[in-house]
Amino acid sequence: MFDQARREIMEPAARERALMAALPEHVAHAKRCSSTQAIRLHHIDAAEVSSREELTRLPLLRKRDLMYEQGRRRAGDPFGGFAASGWRGLAGTRRARRVFQSPGPLYEPEGEGLDPWRMSRAMAAAGFADGDLVHNSFSYHLTPAGAMMESGALALGCTVFPGGVGQTELQLAAILDLQPHAYVGTPSFLKILTEQAESRGMLLGNVTKALVSGEAFPPSMREWLQGRGIQAFQAYATADVGLIAYETKAREGLVLDEDVILEIVDPVSAEPVPPGDIGEVVITALNKDYPLIRLATGDLSAILPGRCPTGRTNTRIRGWLGRADQATKVRGMFVHPEHVAKVAQRHPQILKARLVIDGSIAEERLVLQVEAQSPSTELAAALVSSIREITKLRGEVAFVQPGQLAPDGKMIEDRRRYD
Questions:
Q1: Are 140 and 147 in contact (CB under 8 A)?
Q2: Domain membership of residue 344 as a residue range
Q3: pLDDT at position 409, please?
Q4: Given a cut of 70, is residue 231 above it in pLDDT?
């Protein structure tokens, strides 16, 4: 942990030199140990990729590329040739400790090591410390969020209660019995647990600190939690690269993790945008097990000028500012336009569909607006089932007159209130 703290206060020029010095070997490792990266980067001399300018000449990698290659090569390599780790029968040179499935489906390997997703840095910034009991309400099923957070907490010397998602009454009972010091999970579920405890005239155990992620965390919710004695901080992470950035007690933007190289690019041209302008977040994480280079996350953000008042010297970003591809997060799960298209394809009666998300964080309502040839209660019930199966979320169906949905290409409309 001493080395971790020391890296956080490095002079920016020294950090940049260290990252650029590590980049050529990282590209060489990707070409050597990842068969698909070897094809994508066949024309690249890894030794020359030692500057940001050279890095921008490499192709962007998008989620759809991962999904295509994984789907195409699933029988022989569920990682689509992108991973450098695996298990017996795969070509990876390193051993994967776990494998996860995210919606898509997309498969991600977890490498060996104490904290492979690097979440301990975000937890330490949120005040988590050796000896704390942490209630982890992220999913331990299929997706990596629960394991991500658990590994970070264990690296700090914390004890973890693996609550997982749902089962509010059981989780609340455990909190009241065990009296944890800290919480990790979505902010909406923390609010639900807090409200349930208040309805019984109780506080939420000894929980005074939290690390939240997976959905928007508006100032109004942060202040609501502060009013109940809980200091909650954000972590920005993805299943592909782990921790990207984290909030500090300064509450001024999110500080980049030390092992990622950030670019902010124009979502259309892929050209870098001027510092301070909003663009798409592109990440190269120095992860030898899953060497994804120039991963375009689809998230929008912008660089925040200046240094963090806590003394951390790494670049800051403004946080999550929306999606470049209409996709959004609901209760910690991504909902993509492709999901809406899949629902429509299952039901030939549908002429057009649009998913509308309204309400507020923790109280979202998903309504699939549908233009259909023959609306019926049977079709509505079948659509509700398809929404649940494809997005893993509960939704409703509202039939509208043909021609009522605007011809604007929008398949997801986010009307949620973030104030």
A1: yes
A2: 333-414
A3: 63
A4: yes
What does each C-alpha distance from 316 to 245, 308, 393 come to in angstroms?
8, 7, 33
Cα(first)–Cα(last) distance of the chain, in Å? 37
Rounded CA separation 67/74 (Å): 10
Residue 11 falls inside a structural domain:
no
Tally of residues, the chain: 419
* CA 213/CA 180 separation, integer angstroms: 19
Query: Tens digits of per-residue pLDDT, 90-147?
Result: 866 789 999 999 988 999 999 988 999 999 999 999 999 999 999 999 999 999 999 9
* Spatial contact of 390 and 342, defined as CB atoms under 8 Å apart: yes
Give percent of the chain with pLDDT exceeding 90. Answer: 73
Is position 371 within any domain? yes
Residue 360 amino acid letter: S
Indicate the pTM of the whole model: 0.81
Residue 54 CA to chain centroid, in angstroms?
27
State the average pLDDT for the chain.
92
pLDDT for 360: 80
Query: Per-residue DSSP letters for 14-54?
Result: HHHHHHHHHHHHHHHHHHHH-HHHHHHTTT--GGG--SHHH
406 falls within a domain = yes
Helix-, strand-, coil-residue percentages of the chain, each rounded to 5: 30, 25, 45
Pairing of strands 365-372, 396-400: parallel
CATH number for the domain including 341?
A: 3.30.300.30
Q: Which two tokens stand for residue 380?
A: 């509505």
In a domain, 234, yes or no: no
β-strands 159-162, 133-136 pairing: parallel
Domain total of the chain: 1
Q: At what angle do helices 337-346 and 377-391 cross, to 10 degrees?
A: 140
Cis peptide leading into residue 218 (ω within 30°): no
- pLDDT score of 27: 97
In this prediction, residue 91 carries a pLDDT of: 67
Q: What is the reported pLDDT for 408?
A: 64
Of 365, 296, 377, 295, nearest to 330 (Cα)?
365
